[in-house]
Write a structure and sequence with these properties.
- The structure holds 2 protein chains of 2 kinds.
- Chain A is built from 18 helices and 9 strands.
- Chain A is an alpha+beta fold.
- Chain A has a single domain, classed as Cytochrome-c3 Hydrogenase, chain B, CATH 1.10.645.
- Chain A is globular, with a radius of gyration of 23 Å.
- Chain A starts with 9 loop residues before the first helix and ends with a helix.
- By secondary structure, chain B is an alpha+beta fold.
- Chain B has a domain of 119 residues: Alpha-Beta Plaits, CATH 3.30.70.3270.
- The longest helix of chain B is centred in the N-terminal third of the chain and has 15 residues.
- Chain B is elongated, with a radius of gyration of 27 Å.
- The chains are: A alpha+beta, B alpha+beta.
- Chains A and B meet through α3, α6, α7, α8 and β6 of A and β1, α2, α3 and α4 of B.
- β6 of chain A pairs parallel with β1 of chain B, so a sheet runs across the interface.
- The structure holds iron/sulfur cluster (2 copies).
- The site of one iron/sulfur cluster has 12 residues of chain B, from α3.
Chain lengths: 410, 180
């Protein structure tokens, strides 16, 4: 692929230097265990001095065959595996997966379940963006930001722990509902978190937004044009940073997102700084959504009670009634019963558009499950984006793309 | 659609001068120096474990100290990483009050090197016999040590309250001639 780029000493190059001054290109392998590649990404560089002339991302170090695994187990058994896609926002993955399967079954979950999913997805977005900001801070040399972000993220993880029983691998969704109802008082704690979080978020952002060193590292670096962002199939904050206002929560609302009032943050130039700003603003918008959802949390069922072949019966029924006991056995061993057909559903995850394409031949096990992971598509622009930059700028670019390899390699 | 374009005003002179910014940043960090600690000195201090926590899976007994698991193997089936291995057996002869239960696990192993603490076993168990409890820090020197056998599982699990006493009810019903 011919690429045109210019670098500072191109003029010197052009000048007719004697033959012995001609330098060779160097090849450099960054990763797979490099602190700034956020997981096990390896990039094979070709360098001219310190300028990148070619960048080749090598992925697959974290490949676990999740799509194949899904073909060998019931729909519910796959929920723990969705935790391990974008492991920085497992709650959002859980919800997206469950909604995809429910679309296949043409099942509508009750409003309370939808609202719970909205709150958990948005909390996951905040925690993922906090991690993204913190890690970006480290990449460009700002440790403090990371520490402050992690303090806040820890509070979120405590909330997740109370809700799901686990901090990290939440496995909270079930097909047709969620694993359990909200614990008493949990919504108040979420509200309290939102209240104390906003000033702290401003403080965290204040450390970077007007910081000259940070701006030097991010403004005008790694510019993705609007056209490129669309052509390479970017999604999420990386796409919106380039000024494309595409947000599935607005464009194709699911799980009741149409009821909430929020703005889509977009950037204007598409550089690293814009992507950072968009993430900061998105956290504020997420808090807005969470507050609305907490305020009007509907009562009622938190799982689809009529879906008797999909959602397992409550425990006390299983223990007291023979029919429910048998039903429990059927749903567990044969899986939630799905009609034959295909479905594609994509959700606006923190990292971008997470899609599930499910082909079913009926029964409780998918025939094929394809995962469209945002990080994979977002990384596809690397060969274009890195060329012409200094190696140290590549670190900044990687940080601003905020990808997760668990999801890219799946 | 409501969108907000993030604003990026140019840096002011004082911001560009760099030093005032450093001082402002230091002021923020300095403030945090005197704020209360957010970390715990683990393991001396331990975090509070909320109810419903998903720790190490264990087997529990009912309040009369009787085994609850009937070896239905549903948990073995559902466990996504196949961490559970059950060998079904008969109810021991020295438990006449449980003779009508028909089955009990002869062996019950959970390989904690495989377990992902997902909680599906607890969720599907029709006897409320397996519970993920509060233990989270598990370690061992060998692979064998990391497999929890039946005795160990009951030792970890202890006794939990039971609302139903399902099998006692069934027996009482049978004695009244009601063959369910
Ligand atoms: S918690 Fe999950 S992985 Fe562990 S034994 Fe139970 S079902 Fe298996
Ligand atoms: S623990 Fe529960 S699910 Fe597992 S075999 Fe025993 S009774 Fe069945």
């Amino acid at each position: 692929m011919p690429t045109d780029f210019s670098f500072p000493d191109s003029a010197a190059k052009a000048a007719n230097l004697p033959k012995e001054f001609e330098t060779e290109k160097m090849s450099l392998s960054m990763g797979p265990s490099h602190p700034s590649t956020h997981g096990v990404l390896r990039i094979q560089f070709e360098l001219d001095g310190e300028v990148v002339t070619k960048a080749d991302p090598v992925i697959g170090y974290l490949h676990r065959g999740d799509e194949k695994i899904a073909e060998n187990m019931t729909y519910n058994q796959f929920v723990p595996y969705t935790d391990r896609l974008d492991y920085l926002a497992p709650l959002a993955n859980n919800a997206a997966y469950a909604i995809a399967v429910e679309r296949l079954a043409k099942l509508e979950v009750p409003p309370r379940c939808q609202a719970i999913r909205v709150i958990t997805s948005e909390l996951a977005r905040v925690s993922s963006h906090l991690m993204g900001l913190g890690a970006y801070g480290i990449d460009v040399g700002a440790w403090t930001v990371f520490m402050y972000c992690f303090t806040e993220r820890e509070k979120l993880y405590t909330l997740f722990e109370k809700l799901t029983g686990a901090r990290f691998t939440t496995s909270y969704s079930r097909i047709g509902g969620v694993a359990r109802d909200l614990p008493p008082g949990w919504l108040d704690e979420v509200g309290a978190f939102c209240t104390q979080f906003l000033p702290i978020l401003d403080e965290i952002l204040a450390l970077l937004t007007r910081n000259k060193i940070f701006l030097d590292r991010s403004v005008g670096v790694g510019v993705i044009s609007r056209a490129d962002a669309i052509a390479y199939g970017l999604s999420g904050p990386n796409l919106r940073g380039s000024g494309v206002a595409l947000d599935l929560r607005k464009d194709r609302p699911y799980s009741g997102y149409e009821q909430y009032d929020f703005d889509v943050a977009v950037g204007s130039t598409g550089d690293c700084y814009d992507r950072y700003l968009v993430r900061g603003e998105e956290m504020k918008q997420s808090i807005r959504i969470i507050r609305q959802a907490v305020a009007k949390m509907p009562g009622g069922d938190w799982f689809a009670r009529d879906a008797r072949k999909i959602f397992a019966p409550p425990k006390d029924k299983v223990l007291t009634s023979m029919e429910e006991l048998i039903n429990n056995f059927m749903i567990v061993t044969e899986g939630p019963q799905m009609p034959a057909g295909e479905v594609y559903f994509e959700a606006e995850n923190p990292k971008g558009t997470l899609g599930f394409f499910i082909v079913s031949t009926g029964g409780g096990v998918p025939y094929r499950l394809k995962i469209r992971s945002p990080s994979f598509c977002n990384l596809s622009i690397l060969p274009k984006l890195c060329v012409g930059n200094l190696v140290s700028d590549v670190v900044s670019i990687l940080g601003s793309l905020d990808f997760v390899m668990g999801e890219c390699d799946r | 659609m409501a969108t907000v374009t993030v604003s990026r005003p140019p840096l002011t002179l004082s911001e560009r001068a760099y030093l005032p910014q450093i001082l402002a940043g230091m002021r923020i960090t300095l403030k945090h120096l005197f704020a209360p600690n957010v970390t715990l000195s683990y393991p001396e201090q331990r975090p509070a474990i909320p109810p419903g926590y998903r720790g190490v899976p264990t087997l529990v007994m009912d309040p009369h100290g009787r085994e609850k698991c009937v070896s239905c193997q549903l948990c073995e089936f559902v466990c996504p990483p196949k961490a559970i291995r059950i060998t079904p057996g008969a109810v021991p002869a020295d438990q006449p009050d449980r003779a009508h239960v028909e089955k009990a696990p002869a062996a019950f192993d959970i390989d904690m090197l495989r377990c992902i603490y997902c909680g599906l076993c607890q969720e599907v168990c029709p006897e409320e016999a397996i519970f993920l409890q509060n233990d989270y820090s598990l370690s061992g020197y060998s692979r064998d040590e990391m497999v929890n056998h039946k005795d160990r599982l009951y030792e970890l699990g202890g006794t939990l309250p039971d609302q139903h006493f399902k099998w006692d009810k069934k027996k009482a019903a049978e004695e009244h001639g009601n063959q369910h």
